[in-house]
Amino acid sequence: MRTHSVVAAASLAAALFISSPSASAQSPQFRVTAPSAAAPLDGRLLLLLSTDPSSEPRFQITDSLNTQLVFGIDVDQWSPAKPAIIDHNAFGYPVRSLRDLPPGEYTVQALLHKYETFRRSDGHTVKLPMDRGEGQQWNRAPGNLYSTPRKITIPRGRSAPIHITLDQVIPPIEEPKDTKYIRHIKIRSELLSKFWGRDMHLGAHVLLPEGFDENPNARYPLMIFHGHFPADFDGFRPEPPDPNLEPDYSDRFKLKGYNRIVQQEAHDFYKQWISPTFPRFLAVEIQHANPYYDDSYAVNSANLGPYGDAIMKELVPEIERRFRGVGEGWARFTYGGSTGGWEALAVQMFYPDDFNAAFAACPDPIDFRAYTLVNIYEDKNAYFYDSPHMRLLRPGKRDYLGQISTTLRDANYYELALGSNGRSGQQWDIWEAVYSPVGPDGYPMRLWNKETGEINRKVAEYWRENYDLRHILQRDWATLGPKLEGKIHIYCGDMDNYYLNNAVYLMEDFLKSTTNPHYGGEVNYGDRAEHCWNGDPTLPNAISRLRYNTMYLPRIRERIRKTAPPNAPILNWK
To answer: Would you say domain 182-367+468-563 falls under CATH 3.40.50.1820?
Structure first.
């Protein structure tokens, strides 16, 4: 499409104006204070600006096209009565600097994401946002301070400083209550507490089988449903759908009344669960939010500590003790999608004797030659394709028709505005926290420079040897293969929004080539299916994603038939 020369000239003039030295002097300045009674504070102070009146600005910051504006600075031992200054030096997203902010009317809000000081057993002292029951969500974390939103006008040219007071506190979150079918468990982890230098806990929501109380001698297989932080066990509803529920609209699935569909599916699952012929087992969702993310990726990590061992050696045995699990590897299965898909495959690999099969749907990158669209071992820059003359940004997210909604660089800039040193609580930062070695400052070493995208080859090598699942399988197949035969099942849409299918292709190439033994599992793709297609070709993903706890039962049933000891004391599996 041709651009008129007048428009082009005007755009060039505007670009020269906002980048000129005088522009920074005219950029708006915000002075933020907190109630004087507050003690000195550490954290990330966020300035939020919005042109969308539909909700508070703190709920409108995303890594997609509909995002509003955020600018962030670190505060260290901040005296609340002394104004913290947010100006053109603050890192912004999607507008890089306040000097580039167009004049106009905005709703403004500020929020302090509070940090805690950790003195870890590895000798490092770090400041991080501890999860407070919300699943590591900065805009909902109890105890965070924020301001009442208000309208402001940003004029053209110099303006007086804008004063904001953090006059609100996010309240605590009430913990879920036990019911007949759902029980909740929380334990202090000795392993994690030692690493972090303070009490650390693991939790789980346990769905009990029908007849649990009436059959005190029965023991049950354990199904671990891995995924993001669960506030409670999801997708199980003894009550029929609420007839007064106002139907919503799912933009993702283009469905009206999707909330009603969700309730109906949850109630249908309940009716299946209590039916006479349904297999009796324990279904578990784990809570392992931590100072970097809403879950730990369920593996041991230099930056997060021994979460893998803590889950497998402390939490799982306690669940099986309290709720009469079989307690043997042939009677444990794991499954999940996205983050949960990576976790399901990883724990099956890292604890091969402790699980009898893993069902990994749309897993996070399982081969780092396809770390979404980056080959971390060969590419020089994560944000731009290698080229002698062009500067072409790598896409970060697409729909099933290939339409792009963000670039990989913008997705990382989103995180950099929310937190420095890997403290955003978002996706790219947790991958670094889990997979990277510890840096000299105690924070995760960057795989790439967060601003420029330049890849650190030494960090990439560390990732390969410790967390590249395809590489580890191929490297160690002589010992791992016999333990994993028939246990690996992977599913992914071939138009996954985050290009996760690319790594699955590479994993499939290796798995199909395996001998002594052949892997004996399954890899399947959904045609034109987005994230997170999970293996059911008969249903749209809007429905199949609500059926994780039943989707893999036929495969698990067959696996139990083949591998359970004779006369195993389990109900309804044969």
So the answer is: yes
